[in-house]
Automatic annotation (TrEMBL):
Residues 1-24 form the signal peptide. Its EC number is 3.1.1.73. It comes from the Eukaryota. Coiled coil: none annotated. It is found in: Secreted. This is feruloyl esterase. Its main location: secreted. SUPFAM superfamilies: alpha/beta-Hydrolases.
Length: 288
């Protein structure tokens, strides 16, 4: 009897242990105190100093594996302009693309600074920068490495796309706002959950460029292609959830009738739809 009880106890303990630790992939930074703050830092990447800024959740808990979002600025932008936001008359970029209120202190943000204000990713130097950031930040902060995300507008979308191509296993999902093939695509054959949005009147990166990126992950993710190309409904955006995608590899596409704009709103609304769409897309993923 004693034996049976202790076996049962051991099994229960094992189950408890499994349910506590088996899900999620805590980074080396979990359980460690940190000196990192919400400020600019630099790392050396192939002999160059590269800058980035951090936003760490209020009441950061070193034992809680957080979601982490890498957020790449557009051409001519900067990490500071992502952190502070930009004059709506000059592109209308919300601070952190409007994600902070949605994240409700449940995500760490990493905002890198491009060379020459962009992400040409020459010889994969920006992919290497990303690798260094993962190493550096995630060894000092507690991150669930199964909940790593990337997003950006325009060239920042192109950079997120490049990472989905080159680092598919590191990226749970990406969100590409009015992006194009601007930072290359090494590899690019593996599935990554994909959110994209683009305007039919985009005067900087034609909507066809956004569709091209989307279609690569429609294919990679094994989704069915609809028989027609979704169009906006006048001033309202139209959302398409692709069907038949591999488990955990959804593709969502939002087409609107606007220009090159990360803060596009629907007719009759004052609220840009990108922030909630991106957050909801990322938040559906659970630790694994
Ligand atoms: C934000 O998170 C806190 C703590 O986890 C929770 O109590 C609160 O309800 C959340 N707020 C929203 C708007 O989700």
């Amino acid at each position: 009897m004693f034996r049976r009880t202790s076996l049962l106890g051991a099994a229960l303990l094992a189950l408890t242990w499994l349910s506590t630790f088996a899900l999620g992939a805590p980074s080396a930074g979990c359980g460690r105190s940190t000196n990192l703050r919400n400020q600019a830092y630099s790392v050396n990447v192939n002999g160059r100093n590269r800058q980035y800024m951090l936003r760490i959740p209020n009441n950061y808990d070193q034992n809680r594996p957080y979601r982490i979002i890498y957020l790449w600025h557009p051409r001519g932008g900067s990490m500071q302009k992502i952190v502070n936001g930009e004059d709506p008359n000059r592109g209308g970029i919300l601070p952190y693309h409007g994600l902070v209120p949605h994240a409700n202190e449940s995500a760490i943000f990493v905002v890198p600074e491009g060379l020459n204000q962009g992400w040409a990713n020459m010889n994969n130097e920006d992919t290497a920068f990303f690798d260094r950031l993962v190493e550096t930040v995630e060894s000092q902060l507690c991150v669930d490495t199964s909940l790593r995300f990337s997003t950006g507008f325009s060239w920042g979308g192109g950079m997120s796309f490049a990472l989905a191509c080159a680092r598919p296993k590191m990226m749970r999902a990406i969100s590409v706002l009015s992006g194009g093939l601007l930072s290359g695509c090494q590899g690019g054959t593996e599935p990554v959950a994909y959110y994209g949005q683009h305007g039919t009147r985009d005067s900087v990166l034609n909507v066809g460029m956004g569709r091209q990126l989307r279609d690569q992950f429609v294919r990679n993710n094994g989704c069915q292609r609809p028989s027609f190309e979704p169009q906006p409904n006048g001033g309202r955006s139209v959302r398409t959830d692709y069907q038949g995608c591999l488990p955990d590899k959804p593709v969502v596409w939002v087409i609107h009738d606007g220009d090159h704009n990360p803060s596009q709103v629907d007719a009759g609304s004052n609220t840009p739809f990108a922030p909630k769409n991106t957050w909801d897309f990322f938040a559906q993923f659970q630790p694994q």
